[in-house]
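2024-03-11 09:14:02 INFO worker-7 job=invfold-0412 stage=load source=structure_tokens
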């Protein structure tokens, strides 16, 4: 009889344990499902903050770095279309002047340009930028300028110049430009800072280790200054970006996961203040396929899995890039 009682008690205990763990599992699944539903609502339904809050149509100025091509050029055009004057900062003066003329004619806004090579970290360039923006009301800063490894490369094989350039452009330049505009934003208690982040900062990316580290820094720094600047009326938004058709990504054809800059920037500007797929503070993943990918990374499989996935992916990309170089070298010899 005692054995039967003991067996029944153990069975009851096991049943309770199964029920408890089942309830926990169901709660976790429900939470993840609700989080995914929120992602869909964010990217397809919920509107962002109207840019009129940040000077659109009211004499405000947007400073865009890396403005002459790709995503930066699109930010300049779309912000001008929303009736913001624009300061265009990039390396090639001829491209900047051509873009400035196009924007002025098309949107009837004011422009200013500054040719600046951010890899140099030249004090005179930053002084010139300070002089350029001092008399105007900068309400938006788009920290778009960035550089990457030429091809995926193992850290020990990467050139010192490439490492230095990535740190100078992706870390130092962004901090220095931000520090130039924050005082006047804080004085007016209003401003928007958009930092162009990357999934490489969300998941460490082998063979792009320095770039990945710089974007992880940007994510952490954006959260830190986001908390500092929020009481001063300044919104910081680190935009978590997956693939976009651009010279830096080396993607030439748009797809569901790699949109053209026009579509991507439109999503960013329409979702200011909306987190989209991101769960990190002061961060947004506004483009729908990127938002879903962000949710998958944070909710499916382990971080070790995704680091391993990134490793295999970039080893394969490196092999294909090296084969392409070999073909090009062989073709050059024939010529």
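2024-03-11 09:14:09 INFO worker-7 stage=emit residues=335
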């Amino acid at each position: 009889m005692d054995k039967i009682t003991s067996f029944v008690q153990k069975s009851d205990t096991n049943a309770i344990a199964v029920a408890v763990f089942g309830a926990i599992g169901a709660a976790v699944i429900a939470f993840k499902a609700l989080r995914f539903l929120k992602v869909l609502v964010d990217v397809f339904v919920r509107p962002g903050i109207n840019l009129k809050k940040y000077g659109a149509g009211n004499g405000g100025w947007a400073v865009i770095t890396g403005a002459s091509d790709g995503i930066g050029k699109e930010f300049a055009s779309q912000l001008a279309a929303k009736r913001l004057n624009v300061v265009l900062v990039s390396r090639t003066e001829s491209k900047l002047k051509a873009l400035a003329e196009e924007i002025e004619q098309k949107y009837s806004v004011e422009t200013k340009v500054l040719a600046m090579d951010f890899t140099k970290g030249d004090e005179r360039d930053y002084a010139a930028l300070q002089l350029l923006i001092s008399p105007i009301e900068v309400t938006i800063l788009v920290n778009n300028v960035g550089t990457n490894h030429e091809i995926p490369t193992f850290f020990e094989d990467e050139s010192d110049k490439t490492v230095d350039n990535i740190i100078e452009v992706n870390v130092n330049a962004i901090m220095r430009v931000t520090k130039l505009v924050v005082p006047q934003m804080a004085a007016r208690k209003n401003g928007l800072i958009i930092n162009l982040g990357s999934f490489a900062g969300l998941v460490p990316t082998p063979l792009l280790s320095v770039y990945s580290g710089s974007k992880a820094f940007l994510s952490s720094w954006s959260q830190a200054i986001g908390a500092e600047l929020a009481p001063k009326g300044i919104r910081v938004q680190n935009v978590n970006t997956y693939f976009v058709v651009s010279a830096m990504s080396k993607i030439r054809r748009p797809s569901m996961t790699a949109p053209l800059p026009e579509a991507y920037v439109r999503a960013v500007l329409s979702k200011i203040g909306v987190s989209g797929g991101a769960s990190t503070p002061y961060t947004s993943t506004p483009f729908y396929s990127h938002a879903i990918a962000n949710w998958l990374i944070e909710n499916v499989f382990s971080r070790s899995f995704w680091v391993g996935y990134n490793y295999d992916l970039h080893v394969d990309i490196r092999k294909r890039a090296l084969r392409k170089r070999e073909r090009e070298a062989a073709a050059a010899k024939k010529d």
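2024-03-11 09:14:09 INFO worker-7 stage=report msg="Residues 151 and 318 are 6 Å apart (CA to CA)."
2024-03-11 09:14:10 INFO worker-7 job finished
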